[in-house]
Amino acid sequence: MPQAPTELRVRIGGEAGFGIKAAGQMLARSFVDAGLETFDLTEYPSLIRGGHNNYLLRVSTEPVYSHVEPVDVLICLNRETLDLHHQELVDGGAVIFDPADFPAEDVPARLRAVPVPLTDIARDSGGKIMRNTVALGALLGIVGFPLTYLGDSLHKQFAKKAPEIAENNVAAAQAGCDAAVASCPDFFVKLAPIEGAPRRILVDGNEAVGMGALAAGIGFYAAYPMTPASSILHFMAAHEREYGVVVKHTEDEIAAMNMVVGAAFGGTRAMTASAGGGFALMVEAFGMAGASETAVVVGVLTRPGPATGLPTWTEQSDLRYVIHAAQGEFPRVVLAPGDREDAFELTWKAFNLADQLQTPVVILGDSYLSDNRQSTPAYDLSKVTIDRGKLVTEGEVPAEAKGADGRYLRYKVTEDGVSVRALPGVKGANQLGNSYEHDEYGFGSAGEPAEVRIAQNEKRMRKMKLAEKLAPPPAYFGSPPDAADIGLLFFGTTKGPAREAARMLEREGVKVALMQVVTVFPFPAQEVAAFLGTVPKTLLVEGNFTGQLEGLVRQECLLPVENTLHRYDGRPFTPEQIVARVKEVL
Amino acid sequence: MPTAKELESSMKPTWCPGCGNFGMFRALKEAIEELAIPAEELAMVWGIGCHGNGADFYNVQGFHGLHGRALPVATGIALTRPDLKVIVEMGDGDGYGIGGNHFIHSVRRNIDMTAIFHNNQIYGLTTGQASPTSDQFMKTPSTPGGVVEEPVNPVGVAVAQGATFVARAFAGDIPHLKEIYKRAITHEGFSVVDVYQPCVTWNKMNTFTWFRDRVYRIEELPNYDPTDRTKAFDLSMSTFHELTCAPDECKIPVGIFFEEPESFTYQDGLPQLDRPMWKHAEKPRDISATIAAFGG
């Protein structure tokens, strides 16, 4: 059944190197600039055949939380795209293609063939390279959307090039539009700009994390490239001089994590990020941040493992790993953003938590968060706060941080477990940050007596109690738990497809309560138990094989989990998949 | 400005009697005193090993990191705190073995800081296994048939990798070591000081006597030019010698092998490093221009 005319789903496919992602993002930008909402999904490379790239864009007049399965328009930049994706199209869906690539008869009869001579128009407009632009014009033509927004994007894109390049592209888009409208004037989806729509930004998860770190006053970012985290490094490096951040591409992740600890020891807000594989190399120094009570922020962006795994795909399989990483026991906080709004907010909050607790804080995301762009309410900087906890940056070490002998006690045993942190440079701040167990001064050889070990270990672990108070609570969406037919429990980016699924189910009269575990460690056992005890049925949805969140629920809440849904093929959940499982459960 | 005495903590050194670390401890304290470095402007970092136990014995602003990872911790401090002078102490297994990658990359970065390597050619704290600088064919509990590979040539590696200050010293000659330390600490750029520091407990080959019979000061060489990188590299080949070489068959040069007094340091390449980087977190940063660039 064709979708309501407030929504458009379009897939662009072609060979790697055709600039498909760039074209798609320009299209998304045009819609967002016109006040519409978008969510995109870039897939590269396909497992079906190497070299096939495709970009999926969902456009709506309402906020969108994830991609969906059906497609209304398929833009084929090559023949293969038709073969691979035509079955995703709804009946009456349009196939925009170049008749030089394949004849119209190859388009299945249930679909609408929209032949547009992409190559010829592009060549006539000034160069074959503009083929994608012709196709974008064709798409906008059949949905009746003004080309002006795309024109603005093209002018921005080519602002630094010769002026005729932008003009040629605009002409190419117009010619593509004209050809498509002539062939398909009555397509069932029509979109129009929304006047006075609220400000939206179009960001991917890594940009959101980067902006969160910048807003939080980061001074040092060190990392080694690894998909899907690399673009955080690019983002930070692109802004290092503008905002006064030292950004270091290191020799390996071991160096990155150790440098971050060194920078944080000096009082600088410091961060690193990688995929799970890079985090494996960081783990020893991650534990050192715990032992030495150093405030650091670490991004772990999961891709399917183990080992090199599926570098460009997604999974939620690092939850247990991150919670347990490193030898020994020490306090930590793990935050799992579900979308690009969360990613910004949880990143700046992570820096506050790290400072307040003087311990490492992890942002646990995945490729689905990192790689894909979502229209998001423009970040409100007035909400960002900085709380550096018990930090002394200048002057003298305060009296309460000194021992009976007048010397600074870096690891003074306190009620909440947090000691005054006087930075190097503060008068009287001689200290020893230590990876060894240590006494209150920091001396390693004095850390061996049992009573000292117990005092320091208990002091550190007391910070978990404080973490429970400070860490962001779970988030709830959909119907109230006591009025719902079913409750969905999830963490991280499953939030998007789960919210979409709930919306679809609500339309069918099924009431769904959603609970997102935002702080996955310390685990919010009381809240999860209360949720599970309230909803009549439960479905736990997570992108892994072994049920890592499920295990935490069982362990922390001593409760069984009735129904689960797993995915571990490298793809994110789709809302349709969750809807189908909910219907089974009900 | 702390005196050598004030640079000592309340903890008594626990090194074995006669350990080469005592000489290094004294020489460094005296060098810091003579350079009149204020306590608030000095940061020290240690790796793990017998040298690292020294972290407890210094009364400074310090960080005792992981085995092999002192250099990146120190780099994190140096690249965010331009107000601090950073001195890193490492061992031979620590700095040239497990941390060897960081050594190479720290050298090529030419970060303005001082790296001191306690080189006793053995693993002391883990009871006497071969280290990356153990002489070839030396027998140890981990190499009962003798070390098969050639030792790391840290001076040669540093010189070849573009280091701007490379010295080697002997812990048995404290006045000479102290002068080298002072030169290294005042050098603008990455300074490497490899110090032969005999292990009296585990290394029965490379003893104080063995070194005394073989070391000579580079500055006594006629016409030696420490700005000639090729000559410095040639001289570093003294690292390689027969295990049982006679004193006159394997002379060990100590002193400054190479120095490039004016060089482009990593910090020179960071115009944004104009203040202690923690100052950026005094209030939320205004990134509205960046948000606007994303459409907001």
Q: What does the model show?
A:
The complex is a heterodimer of chains A (586) and B (296). Chain A is an alpha/beta fold and 586 residues long. Chain A folds into 4 domains: 7-183, Pyruvate-ferredoxin oxidoreductase, PFOR, domain III (Pyruvate-ferredoxin Oxidoreductase, domain 3), CATH 3.40.920.10; 202-383, 3-Layer(aba) Sandwich (Rossmann fold); 391-470, no CATH class; 475-585, 3-Layer(aba) Sandwich (Rossmann fold). Chain A contains 19 helices and 23 strands. In chain A, the strands form 5 sheets. A 7-stranded mixed sheet of chain A has the order 9-8-10-11-13-12-21, with helices on both faces. A 6-stranded mixed sheet of chain A has the order 2-3-1-4-5-6, with helices on both faces. In chain A, helix 5 runs antiparallel to helix 6 (163-183). The termini of chain B are far apart. Chain B has helices at 20-35, 70-78, 92-98, 100-109, 154-160, 174-186, 208-212, 229-236, 288-293; strands at 42-46, 61-64, 85-91, 113-119, 122-123, 129-130, 165-170, 190-196, 215-217, 252-259. The radius of gyration of chain B is 20 Å and the shape is globular. Chain B has 9 helices and 10 strands. Chain B has one domain (20-293): Thiamin diphosphate (ThDP)-binding fold, Pyr/PP domains (Rossmann fold), CATH 3.40.50. In chain B, strand 9 (215-217), helix 8 (229-236) and strand 10 form a beta-alpha-beta unit. In chain B, the strands form 2 sheets. Chain B has an 8-stranded mixed sheet with strand order 2-1-3-4-8-7-10-9, with helices on both faces. A two-stranded antiparallel ribbon of chain B has the order 5-6. Chain B is α/β, with parallel strands linked by helices and 296 residues long. In chain B, helix 1 (20-35) packs across helix 6. The model of chain B has no long low-confidence stretch (mean pLDDT 97). At the A-B interface, helix 1, strand 7, helix 7, helix 9 and helix 10 of A face strand 2, helix 2, helix 4 and helix 9 of B.
